[in-house]
Automatic annotation (TrEMBL):
<comment type="similarity">
    <text>Belongs to the CbbQ/NirQ/NorQ/GpvN family.</text>
</comment>
<dbReference type="InterPro" id="IPR013615">
    <property type="entry name" value="CbbQ_C"/>
</dbReference>
<dbReference type="InterPro" id="IPR050764">
    <property type="entry name" value="CbbQ/NirQ/NorQ/GpvN"/>
</dbReference>
<keyword id="KW-0067">ATP-binding</keyword>
<feature type="domain" description="ATPase dynein-related AAA">
    <location>
        <begin position="28"/>
        <end position="162"/>
    </location>
</feature>
<dbReference type="InterPro" id="IPR027417">
    <property type="entry name" value="P-loop_NTPase"/>
</dbReference>
<dbReference type="GO" id="GO:0005524">
    <property type="term" value="F:ATP binding"/>
</dbReference>
<keyword id="KW-0547">Nucleotide-binding</keyword>
<dbReference type="GO" id="GO:0016887">
    <property type="term" value="F:ATP hydrolysis activity"/>
</dbReference>
<dbReference type="InterPro" id="IPR011704">
    <property type="entry name" value="ATPase_dyneun-rel_AAA"/>
</dbReference>
<dbReference type="Pfam" id="PF07728">
    <property type="entry name" value="AAA_5"/>
</dbReference>
<feature type="domain" description="CbbQ/NirQ/NorQ C-terminal">
    <location>
        <begin position="175"/>
        <end position="259"/>
    </location>
</feature>
<dbReference type="Pfam" id="PF08406">
    <property type="entry name" value="CbbQ_C"/>
</dbReference>
<protein>
    <submittedName>
        <fullName>CbbQ/NirQ/NorQ/GpvN family protein</fullName>
    </submittedName>
</protein>
Amino acid sequence: MEGATAPFYLPQGDECDVFAAAAENNLPLLLKGPTGCGKTRFVSHMAAKLGRPLYTVACHDDLSAADLIGRYLLKGGETVWVDGPLTRAVREGAICYLDEVVEARKDVTVVLHPLTDDRRILPIDRTGEELEAADGFMLVASYNPGYQNILKTLKPSTRQRFLSVAFDFPDAEREIDVVLRETGIDADRAKGLVRLANKLRALKGQDLEEGVSTRLIVYAATLVVQGMPIERAIEAAMIEPLTDDEDVKTGLLDLVTAVF
Ligand code: ADP
């Protein structure tokens, strides 16, 4: 089933084929790459193309297994069980996307293990159920290996349960295309913004922890299309989000003047 309204996604390589093959064969998929490089868009695009419902969970350090599985809630004086997004996906044969999975609490990985081997089961301790994943259920997770946090990486026993695809920012030609199609900005300024982004990315590790994401270039172009002067749009979307250090900011703004 091909969804007519799949959100626009420009492939960087053969990732759509890998996703489709993983979906076809009931294999879980891990997307590795920096924030804002298109992972979430890719998953929504593929879910629509394959005609499967999608449950997306943005993981954070307080997210526990119960948030994914479900819990008893008090409703009108009665306690009723309410499925979490993972349980719903397992029952319905949907795709469950755990964005930034390493951020979640450790008990989440325990839940993922029986779902990512050929048993494909989700034990729900609180209700005593053991759900077998419906046809079509697929687990997709993402993480950013760039964060140098030794405490927050996936354990080999978890990561070796997933097929993995590495993502990075698209090459300049593709990134210009994305910015054009996402915002409708003119080609000259799209090229300029991408050129600037690549200069800023080259500073990663020296003055900057993270480079400019494709998302931020799209934001800058959106502001420009709305009528904001380009220097101001760049400052708000591509400089301020990167650093709080005034000296670094001044240096980056000089770079802007050199490119535009
Ligand atoms: P991530 O999940 O990797 O943090 P997103 O998928 O949210 O990043 O991407 C951020 C934005 O960048 C998207 O909303 C979209 O505008 C744009 N984008 C990045 N890469 C692509 C791509 N390959 N095709 C289409 N849009 C893209």
